[in-house]
Amino acid sequence: MNFKKYIIxxxxxxxxxxxxxxxxNDSLNGDAEYVNxxxxxxxxxxxxxxxxxxxxxxxxxxxxxxxxSELNINKTLVPPEASKVQGVMEVVRKVWIDPYISLAxxxxxxxxxxxxxxxxxxxxxxFDGTIKLxxxxxxxxxxxxxxxSFEQTDQYSVKQLIHTIEHEFGHILHQxxxxxxxxxxxxxxxxxxxxxxxxxxxxxARGFITSYSMLSPxxxxxxxxxxxxxxxxxxxEAILECETGAAGRAILRKKEELVVKYFAETYGIDxxxxxxxxxxxINEIAPSNGEGDxxxxxxxxxxxxxxxxxxxALYYDLSTLVQxxxxxxRYNYDNNLLHQQGYALDxxxxxxxxxxxxxxxxxxxxxxxxxxxxYYEANFWFFxxxxxxxxxxxxxxxxxxxxxxxxxYDVQATGILSFFANRTFNLSWEQSCNGDYxxxxxxxxxxxxxxxxxxxN
Length: 457
Known about the structure:
This protein is of the alpha+beta class.
């Protein structure tokens, strides 16, 4: 599909309505296309391709045959679909490995690359509602999650994958050769284990490129690496210009300077040239088709999103999109109430049209402080009378499932629900300063109150 001038979030997650199982992950069923770990299987065409592109030249094993014993046995994880593996690893080769080879040679990758990539179909969810997209174990093994939702031609998917890899490889590099100690002294008092409760806009105002950067100096350093490479110079500069104040911008410039110095002095790599080559590779694999170039606004949102339209869902991720203060306050209000009951609220939620025409708001939450986290979803239903071309939507609240009742009546966590319930919204597009358009719902009677989403199905 050719996506034009708006961001699409490709999601391949099967959700179970009121189950105590992990609702975020795909169900294992007879239709699942995965390969078991039988050692007697003959090498496939995929195995030979992986050997040619990774094992033979770099001594990197790519393990996609399912072996749950190598993963967290306390989590519900899903095997990778074999048809997704080559697309994922083509991006790894072209966007991660080849730019480093171009600037530092084969020996650099042979010396510092992890010796195994292990692929997992689903994400792994943490107790605090955050998700794990990748891990690096002692510089030897990298686990890549969410393989089954990967779309090679979708720039969002490509950037998410490369962000994970650049982040984990950054850990390998600094664990091998330490980054400048002065980096830790730039924002020493702002690191926090509760980074997931800090909005993206607040993090950037305080000199952190992402909220996750606030976890520790190590995470801060590798997030600077990954964000600068994945976003590229133009988008990175737009972030600094649009989403930071003078103080935050100055802090980020100091961190940027030390990252560039580290790569030059420790590994002999021109970081800005690496940034250029990574961007070139991303755009070659998944062209942006005009996203961010400031061209004309996309087609009216009501023509794209709705029952029977090309897109039926709006996804919200408070960790990646800068949202208005009111939205963040509502999330924090609900999350704090849930914490008092031994739960946490995920920072992802969605608004989608079900097959029966009902517009559904789905919130995700889970237990905390338990040996095995239990995951739940709460579905709130809305009746939405509309014509096919109406640019407004009125959401009449019509109850929900048992979990929605738990949130609404037992916990009284209604901050996000009350944002949507019994309101009329204007449908429009909001353009960020770097040119990206985001589908936007704004109060018809108060347009300054709005929420930014990402189209999907």
